Amino acid sequence: MHDSVFDRYHETQSPLHSLDARVKVVMAVAFILSNSLLPDGAWLAFGLTWLAGLFLNWLSGLGVGFTLKRSFIALPFALAAITAIFAIPGQPLGEWQLGSLTLIPTDAGLLRFVSIVIRSWLSVQAAILLVATTRFPDLLHALEHLHMPTVLTTIIAFLYRYLFVLTDEVMRLTRARQSRSAAVAGRRAGRSVWWRARTAGNMTGQLFLRSYERSDRIYNAMLARGYTGQLRTLTPHIMRSRDWAYSAAAAFVILLLQISGRF
Amino acid sequence: MPITHQTPTLPALDLAGCDGDVLSITDLHFNYPDGHAALGGVSLNLCEGEKVALVGPNGAGKSTLMLHLNGILAGEGDVSIGGLRIEPDNLPVIRSMVGLVFQSPDDQLFSPTVFEDVAFGPLHMGLPEDEVRVRVDEALEMVRMSAYRERLSHHLSMGEKKRIAIATVLSMRPQILVLDEPSAGLDPRARRALINLLRDLPITMLVSSHDLRMVRELFPRMVIMDEGKIVADGLTTELMNDEALLEAHGLEKP
Amino acid sequence: MLFSPAPLHIPNNFLSLAVSILCWVITASVLAVAISKTNKSLGERQVPLMGIMAAFIFAAQMINFPVAGGTSGHLLGGALVAVLLGPWAGMLVMTAVVAVQALLFQDGGLVEMGANILNMGIITVVIGYGLYRAVMTQSRTAKLATIGFAAWLSVMASALATSLEIWLSGNAKLEIIIPAMLLVHALIGIGEALITVAALGFILRTRPDLMGEKSASAQGGRGWIFAGVLISVAVVLLSPLASADPDGLERVAIDLGFIDTARSGPFELLPDYTLPILGETPFSTIAAGAIGMVVVLVIAFMLGKAVQNRNPVNPKS
């Protein structure tokens, strides 16, 4: 019931799925960086980038429109870039008074705003595809190989493992609170904001203590299986020729996108 | 000499004439977001003073059904408490009428002290402070935990927590008590204390349990659920003797 | 489904590469120190603990309480985890949370992650721990009041840093983004303060040993107080100053080559940030900021006292 929320990985056979996880991470980051480096209003490059994204969708075997639907959830947050409309000097498009502030939207600002939204929207699709085609443990492995400190990846691994357990507890705590959040006719229910905040704080404190004590049990279980403080070793990942081939192709495509952006 | 246990005699049950004055569920359907059908048309009536057990295998939908009784889940069909139909805008009132206690007491005791947890319900309802104090004392007395008033919930045993959890809803003076697996995880002594408690509580209750010995001892009426539907609803003594029926639904005669 | 409690996660491509890289450099350096320090202090038990705590913070960010009219208060958790686990472990925990939010839920950009970790995982921890460390041996009221204030300030500092990063990237005017962000987060910060104080009050009552002298949270030296106070003061001074004299700041930024935009339009001081008596000078905005800080401190003290009266219904009366 819950697993689907945290399981962003979509199982299927595809060239992208079987690609080395490190290559995918680097490709995703390179894709996002490429977007950053494209100038404002580089419509050709944006369009070509979008096509590249569609191609990757197809390559993933998850459907050409896979990331499109999911990317719209992130779109409202990108709209916060609206401040850019007033931040770039250029041809004024009007003048608004907000209290003692004079807001002057400019054409360059509008261009910047639209460009940020487009870039952000393109980039988020790469991020979505990355986790959809890569199992999370493999993703962590890849990050370790890319020199992310083992301590951090281990913490993240534990986070992932216990995420469902703890969020489930939060759901049950919340339901228990709901069940006792009653009202009777003629009386104002819910008391004060501070009282409600205290309840939330109590729930948080409860959750903390149970998590803390749970970590003791986990540590004991690890000890029982021979943990001596050394974190796990990595099986070496070997790059196959197809991994190199995909990397080279990706680098080439990004170069092309950058060139197209200068027109 | 074999030891014979006396089957406790249960009061005679008048099933006719009960029109669901406390709880009335009519043709309730519920699907989970992923499409999995959890309830496939459940209808059930409970009257004042009845004590009814809800049994069935895991995944039968017992917990899901219970979550509909105070509006945490909402399916298609009618659920009415004390004649009041559950609607999205009367949930807080419904919650004052239904005392729902979940299986794990750790999820329900979220205040530092026992007193604060039992006081939560009445406080949220906006009752004046002396009224709240009266209700807390009354609820703790009903579960025989008055001595635990100032204790920190975190340090209590499982059995103690379960009884406090019941007190946390009793303080709202609900019309019906709905308990999900109350005896699960209890040692024999705590279980016996719980059974005695439930026997003496003069309140309408619907209790789900795998503990068929407790069911036979406490509940005159039994409802068997399987795969989202009610497959049997009748006298416990009768249903308990129908071994084929029990076995068909993952139960064993105790 | 997004779990972020506050609009602080900077999305993809919001920051210029220069700013992103600068933030990554700062973040990576600080985290490197954090890793070597936690290796020494907590022992081998620490990794499962930090992992669970990361899951805890993530889950705790989902706990909310209704404030008014459909809005609700949430927890970010930087100050809380700093007090519970100590500063270095706290940073690592928050880093894991921010990373998973970005990776799994696209909540925050991947390239911007350096900035997001800095804002939500490092600055919050430094302020939370630094101020707490100063009152660690004081009374329960002092502790709770201070941590409440620190939690509020940590959210403000996060918002300030986010604003500066976006401004340095050339994507916002200071006098728009700083007031907008700070005003919104002044309110959000109150929710943070309330939950943090209540959670710590609960823990102090139920398991005070977890926050005593021998606990993990007592690991840091007095230098933390200095760091925490310094950053706090910087936040208080910088906020009104930034909107009071953005011209000056911008000149500095241009000199350093961060912004390639030319002069902006005329600046106005915001009336909200001035004291009428002192007139419209930078000094008056600083004074307003300082007074604001004192007011919040007083409120936090009162809250601390209220938490000490934990039973709203005193059973002994």
Name some characteristics of this structure:
heterotrimer; B: 254 residues; alpha/beta; six-stranded mixed β-sheet; globular; C: 317 residues; Arp2/3 complex 21 kDa subunit ARPC3; disordered N terminus
Topology of this structure?
The complex is a heterotrimer of chains A (263), B (254) and C (317).
Chain A: H1 3-6, H2 21-37, H3 43-59, H4 66-71, H5 75-78, E1 96-98, E2 101-103, H6 107-133, H7 136-145, H8 150-179, H9 193-224, H10 241-260
Antiparallel strand pairs in A: 1-2
Helix pairs in contact in A: 2-6, 2-7, 2-10, 3-6, 3-10, 7-8
Chain B: E1 23-31, E2 37-46, E3 51-55, H1 62-68, E4 76-81, E5 84-85, H2 91-97, E6 98-101, H3 114-124, H4 129-142, H5 158-170, E7 176-180, H6 188-200, E8 204-208, H7 212-218, E9 221-226, E10 229-235, H8 236-241, H9 243-248
Parallel strand pairs in B: 3-8, 3-9, 6-7, 7-8
Antiparallel strand pairs in B: 1-2, 1-4, 4-5, 9-10
Chain C: H1 17-41, H2 46-60, E1 65-68, E2 71-73, H3 78-85, H4 87-105, H5 113-134, H6 140-168, H7 174-206, H8 223-244, H9 246-255, H10 282-308
Antiparallel strand pairs in C: 1-2
3D structure, described in words:
- The complex is a heterotrimer of chains A (263), B (254) and C (317).
- With 263 residues, chain A is mainly α.
- Chain A has helices at 3-6, 21-37, 43-59, 66-71, 75-78, 107-133, 136-145, 150-179, 193-224, 241-260; strands at 96-98, 101-103.
- In chain A, strand 1 and strand 2 (101-103) form a beta hairpin.
- The longest helix of chain A has 32 residues, at 193-224.
- Chain B is an alpha/beta fold and 254 residues long.
- Chain B has helices at 62-68, 91-97, 114-124, 129-142, 158-170, 188-200, 212-218, 236-241, 243-248, and strands at 23-31, 37-46, 51-55, 76-81, 84-85, 98-101, 176-180, 204-208, 221-226, 229-235.
- A six-stranded mixed β-sheet of chain B has the order 6-7-8-3-9-10, with helices on both faces.
- In chain B, strand 4 (76-81) and strand 5 (84-85) form a beta hairpin.
- Helix content of chain C is 66%, strand content 2%.
- Chain C has helices at residues 17-41, 46-60, 78-85, 87-105, 113-134, 140-168, 174-206, 223-244, 246-255, 282-308; strands spanning 65-68, 71-73.
- The longest helix of chain C is centred in the middle third of the chain and has 33 residues, at 174-206.
- Residues 1-6, 257-280 and 306-317 of chain C have low confidence and may be disordered.
- Classes of the chains: A mainly alpha (263), B alpha/beta (254), C mainly alpha (317).
- The A-B interface holds A 1, 4, 169, 172-173, 175-185, 187-191, 195, 199, 202-203, 205-206, 209-210 and B 32-34, 36, 67, 70, 72, 92-93, 95-96, 98, 100, 102, 104, 106-112, 116, 120-121, 123-127, 154, 168-169, 172.
